# Entry
Amino acid sequence: MSENELAINEETFTLEALAEAGDLSKHSDDAFNALRTSAFLPRLQLMTATAEKCKKKEFPIDHYALVEGSSFKDLEEQVDVLLLAWRPKALDMSGDEIITLYEKDDKEFKDIAAKSEFKDSSCMWGYEFLVWIGHIRRFATFFCGSKSARREAPNVKGFMNGAATLRSKFIETKKYSWQGIDVCACSTPMDMPSKAAVTVEIKKFNNPPKQSIERVEENEADAQAV
# Structure
């Protein structure tokens, strides 16, 4: 028995002993995460003052969140990522189902892009990036789907195949002001993924279904907005 294994019997077993022993699973965390498909990768999202969860004080304003289903994990005010790939993406969340398209030349993709120009249309389009978040060792998608996010997307793409720090910046016009995505060079060491894991995720990311349809969850549209 290795020093990390736990002898479990009626005399020695306690919750404290179990906690000290750590994860006794045969398989690694990387193996666990590798079973996830790209369709179910979590989303990396900047949560601004307009987000419903921020309005309700359920999540810090201008912090990045890792959104997975109804779970919003706080990643603080900035997050270091590897930029691995990108693809076009359009979302229609105006009905009971989320329609997602990845072919920019499709008529429906163009229709969603046109609808997004109208206020409260629940339609978005832009650039989706595949990223690796080193400090939590997770792959995620990062969608630049609003007007301000699309303007910053070329700067994000400029760090492709390298490391970048995502943060927020104050944007102001004569009528409005808001926080948007900002990106800069990453100056801290990155906990790197394995080459095999990157290869698998990029292959899946680059070959999405032509269209996907899923039920709208509570706050789903809010979680997609930037």
Notes: The chain has one domain: 15-224. Residues 15-224 form one domain. Residues 147-157 form the longest helix (11 residues).
